[in-house]
Design goal:
InterPro entries: ATP-grasp (IPR011761), ATP-grasp_carboxylate-amine (IPR003135), ATP_grasp_subdomain_1 (IPR013815), PreATP-grasp_dom_sf (IPR016185), PurK (IPR005875), PurK_C (IPR040686), PurT/PurK_preATP-grasp (IPR054350), Rudment_hybrid_motif (IPR011054). By secondary structure, this protein is of the alpha+beta class. It folds into three domains: about 10-95, Rossmann fold; about 125-185, ATP-grasp fold, A domain (Dna Ligase, domain 1); about 190-380, ATP-grasp fold, B domain (D-amino Acid Aminotransferase, Chain A, domain 1). The chain has helices at about 20-30, 60-70, 85-90, 100-105, 110-115, 130-140, 170-175, 230-245, 280-285, 290-295, 320, 330-335, 365-380, and strands at about 10-15, 35-40, 50-55, 75, 125-130, 145-150, 160, 180-185, 190-200, 205, 210-215, 220-225, 250-260, 265-270, 310-315, 340, 355-360. Strands 9, 10, 11, 12, 13, 14, 15, 16 and 17 form a nine-stranded antiparallel sheet that branches. Strands 3-2-1-4 form a four-stranded parallel sheet, sandwiched between helices. The protein has a four-stranded antiparallel sheet with strand order 5-8-6-7, with helices on both faces. The protein is globular, with a radius of gyration of 20 Å.
């Protein structure tokens, strides 16, 4: 029997009330749904746009069950939700994606191992559980490596670049003396990402790959569709479909990918939620990633992923707000094709994502030039 469809007028729960949850909630409201969320932060960005916000730890089983009992389906905007919480939600209402997907993704070593065992391409890597094991792994991988905490870490946090095994003790201490994944540095040409939506009845929709540029390990700008050779885009899409099907995802899955200079496409990491590199779908595509997340969680027919016009985004970090006078948004908005998207965060901090600019153009390159011009006006 096909899973039940949740129709407009029903209630969607979201674990996490950050900017991704906020943008999902806004799309859900447009479709006619009620929205409830759970987040540890009493002033989270979603609070002002949802019907109810439960302030509680993600580990609070009672609070998660309270959310689930009031919702027809629950999804998430952050992967750091403990598995017992996801399992508790699923006892009361559909949890999409479910605990089995998060079990693979939440731990980098487990994720890399799953990808390798299922014959999906990853770069050379090792797992280490002590400073000595870390030194051995760095040596085995050739010296220059990226060392990442096995759990947690986001926007460049929880990882250290090393150039030799001699740096292992310092890296081990910096990352909290806990399990780490060690990845060999690669000869990268570019970074890209692919977003897949899969409904409970097995329908899939894959967005064209996005082309991404990072600065200080934080996404600086992204371009959709990415200017990629046809064979690279096809390989990225093939991997996205294969991994999504193998994991039996219900909801969204994003593949962060590396393109090597020899044309090889490797999987870097997986994210079971909306993704920063696909914010441009709001202005580029017939169906935004946020509406698609709602459709998938509710088992509704998935929307078209057609790119109507190329688009690009530039992230706006808290650094802008810390400057004297703050950002002059009116100057950026005066440029043609530019839109501003703010997340409703109260406290600006260096490196914190506060919003983004988007722009459309006649070509991807035109869209990127426009959004970069708007960002330059703000001083990015």
């Amino acid at each position: 029997m096909s899973p039940r469809v949740v129709l407009p007028g029903g209630t969607i729960g979201i674990l996490g009330g950050g900017q991704l949850g906020r943008m999902m909630a806004l799309s859900a409201r447009t479709l006619g749904f009620q929205v409830q969320t759970l987040d540890p932060d009493a002033s989270c960005p979603s609070r002002s746009v949802v019907d109810r916000c439960i302030t509680a730890s993600f580990a609070d089983i009672a609070a998660a069950e309270e959310l689930a009992k009031g919702c027809d389906t629950v999804t998430l905007e952050i992967e750091k939700v403990p598995l017992p919480t996801l399992e508790a939600v699923a006892r009361h209402t559909p949890m999409r994606p479910g605990a089995s997907v998060l079990h693979v993704i939440q731990h980098r070593g487990r994720q890399k191992g799953w990808l390798a065992r299922n014959h999906f391409p990853v770069g050379p890597w090792r797992e280490a559980h002590s400073a000595d094991e870390l030194a051995q792994a760095i040596g085995a991988l050739g010296g220059r490596c990226f060392v990442k905490s096995s759990e947690g870490g986001y926007d460049g946090r929880g990882q250290v670049e090393v150039k030799s095994a001699a740096e292992a003790p310092a890296a081990w201490r910096e990352l909290g003396e806990r399990s780490v994944v060690v990845e060999a540095a690669l000869d990268l040409q570019s970074e890209l990402s692919v977003l897949v939506a899969r409904s409970p009845k097995g329908e899939m929709a894959v967005y064209p790959p996005a082309f991404n540029h990072h600065e200080e390990r934080i996404l600086a700008w992204s371009l959709l569709p990415g200017p990629l050779p046809t064979q690279v885009a096809e390989r990225a899409t093939e991997l996205a479909r294969g991994i999504t099907e193998a994991l039996q995802v219900e909801g969204l899955l994003v593949l962060e990918l590396f393109l090597l200079r020899d044309g090889t496409v490797l999987v870097n990491e997986l994210a079971p939620r909306p993704h920063n590199s696909f914010h441009s779908t709001e202005v580029a595509c017939l169906t935004s990633q946020f509406e698609q997340a709602v459709r998938a969680a509710c088992n509704l027919p998935l929307g078209s992923v057609e790119v109507v016009r190329p688009a690009a985004i530039v992230n706006l970090l808290g650094d802008l707000w810390l400057r004297e006078g703050g950002p002059r948004f009116e100057d950026a908005l005066a440029l043609p094709g530019v839109r501003l998207h703010l997340y409703g965060k109260r406290d600006a901090r260096k490196g914190r994502k506060m919003g983004h600019l988007s722009a459309v153009g006649t070509t991807p390159e035109d869209a990127l030039a426009r959004v970069k011009a708007a960002a330059a006006v703000l001083g990015v």
